[in-house]
Amino acid sequence: MITKSSILISYKNKEVLREKIANLLGATDVDFTIMEYDYFDVNEYKKRIEASSISPDENSKYIEILSNVFFIYEVDFGTSATSVESNYFPAYIDFISQVLSLQLQCDVLTSFKPLSGDEYCPVTYFSNGKEIVNFISDSSNFWAGVLWVKRQLHNS
Q1: pLDDT (0 to 100) of residue 54
Q2: Which of 20, 49, 74, 81 could bond 37 through an S-S bridge, CB–CB 3.0 to 4.6 Å?
Q3: What radius of gyration, in Å, describes the C-alpha atoms of the chain?
Q4: Which uninterrupted H or E stretch holds 100?
Q5: Would you tell me how many other CB atoms lie within 10 Å of the CB of residue 92?
C-alpha cells in the first residue's frame, strides 16, 4: 500500500498541467499539488562526489536524467491508506505520467515514497510518451526496502 507519489515534469505551462492532471484523475481519491522544482543543482552534486572520491550508492541513470533534463515542476500526489488507489498507486501515477508525457510532449520522471522509508524511489522516466528507463527492473539499492517489489521479484 503506497500513499505518496511524485513526478518531475519539464512542461512549462502550469495551468494547462493542472487541468490535464485534474482531468486524468477524475473522481479518484487522489489529491495533487504542483510546485516549482528547484531543490539542488545535480551538476554541483556530481562535482562534489567526484572531488571527494566517494562512490555514490544512487543509480547513475537517475543522476544522469536529473542532470540532463530541465525539470520545471514537481507534482506531489497523495491518497488515503484505505483508498482503492493505494493498492496500485505507483502504477497508476506511472499511467498518468505517461499520458501527460505523450499529450504535452515533455519529460516526466516518476517516484513514490514507501511507507517504511523517508526517501522517494524512482519508478520510470518517460520522454514524449515513451518509456525510456524503468527503475523497477534495475538492480539498484533504491528498491532494497520495498516489500511489494521484493514479492514481485521472488514470484517471477
Answers
A1: 62
A2: 74
A3: 16
A4: helix 89-104
A5: 21
Tens of pLDDT, residues 23-73: 999 999 999 999 998 766 677 777 776 777 666 555 677 778 887 888 999
State the first-to-last Cα distance of the chain, in angstroms, to the nearest integer.
20
Which residues make Cβ contacts (< 8 Å) with residue 6, sequence separation at least 6? 74, 75, 76, 77, 110, 111, 112, 113, 120
Domain extent at residue 150: 4-155
Q: Which residue has the cell 521479484?
A: 153
127: left (phi over 0), alpha (psi -120 to 50) or beta: beta
- List of residues 6+ apart from 70 with CB closer than 8 A: 10
Q: 67 is written with which cell numbers?
A: 542532470
| 49: amino acid identity, one letter | I
Q: How many domains does the chain have?
A: 1
